[in-house]
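Minutes, project check-in

Agenda point 3 was the complex the collaborators sent over. CS summarized: four entities, 350 residues total, and the question is how they sit relative to each other. Sequences were read into the notes so everyone works from the same version.
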Amino acid sequence: MTSHAAAEPIRTAITDEDGIDFAIIELFFFAYRDFTSDPDQILAEYGFGRAHHRVLHFVNRRPGLTVAELLDVLKITKQSLARVLKQLIDTDHIVQLQGPRDRRQRELYPTAKGRALALALARPQSRRIHAALEDSGATERAVIERFLEAMVNPELRAQIDIVPAKMSGKNHGDH
Amino acid sequence: MTSHAAAEPIRTAITDEDGIDFAIIELFFFAYRDFTSDPDQILAEYGFGRAHHRVLHFVNRRPGLTVAELLDVLKITKQSLARVLKQLIDTDHIVQLQGPRDRRQRELYPTAKGRALALALARPQSRRIHAALEDSGATERAVIERFLEAMVNPELRAQIDIVPAKMSGKNHGDH
DNA sequence: AAAATACGTCAATAGTGCTGACATAATTTC
DNA sequence: GAAATTATGTCAGCACTATTGACGTATTTT
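CS then shared the predicted structure for the full assembly.
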């Protein structure tokens, strides 16, 4: 008990010395902070928050996904989703259709309005990404993609591949 | 106004077709979600949240920074910071010292306890980054760094350089 | 002396997440 | 066909993080 009235202040900065990659940890924080700030401004106009954005995004990415699937992707609880989803349905951004095979299920689809908003929200983010790719050496796109994917928990990477996302070449004829 | 009782569902997935980089947008979301999940578990043991983590991180990175500077980095309000900072001070993770030049200022320093916790929180994140770098082609570290930095708002990049980070390969001569 | 600054605090509110409990409809199992 | 399970919806209550506005105090600047 040398002194506990006020423990000794440490005056030296923590650095990568300890074998910890603080540089990238911090960059990741700043990058994500600004990455989300773009759509936040648009969302505010609608009285929506980030939760609405995420729901809208995934419903547009996987039209027809069920509530359970959405919960699994977002990693939140049913009750947390309820409020947000209800608002998006009430404002005609998303519609529910009864599942064809299992009529208990509600398949979620975006409306034209919902798709437009999803696009509007993604546009500034995409611009930011595009600019960042150019600034950091254009051709490295694949490197960035691989890195980000490798940051995701292995057992959850399946969620990514569900998306009819990137067929690399960008020409995905029909589906 | 063809039908507004229930707007038409769109059944096709949104893709990069629209010139929007949904692939990376989504990867960024997943990557950050899992990136923050590691420390979240540790924080829960202390009854802390992400806000505590961020404060602890930056106080360790820039010992002696003032409350105003911290607010500027975190981009939150004084009131939001107040409770979190108070808890960290009450639990002896952080100490305040009167500013030497301006005695109104409170310089924030980590204690040994605070430094230890900051390291414990960063360790799993650093491991994840390290693993991701290896999986995605080890030598590309600089590419990832440049990309993440380019994702940050230009006018806020100054915040990054404040850190006595690593003088490795980034030439931040003057800008 | 007055104004501005740095910080602390109190009160009230919003958004997003949580747990637990219960209800309904539909499907599956026995 | 009855019972159990599943998918979803909803209600009530709580926690954390963030917000704005207002006020007080000490200190520095004008």
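Noted in discussion: DSSP finds seven helices and three strands in chain B.
Follow-up: revisit at the next meeting once the mutant set is ready.
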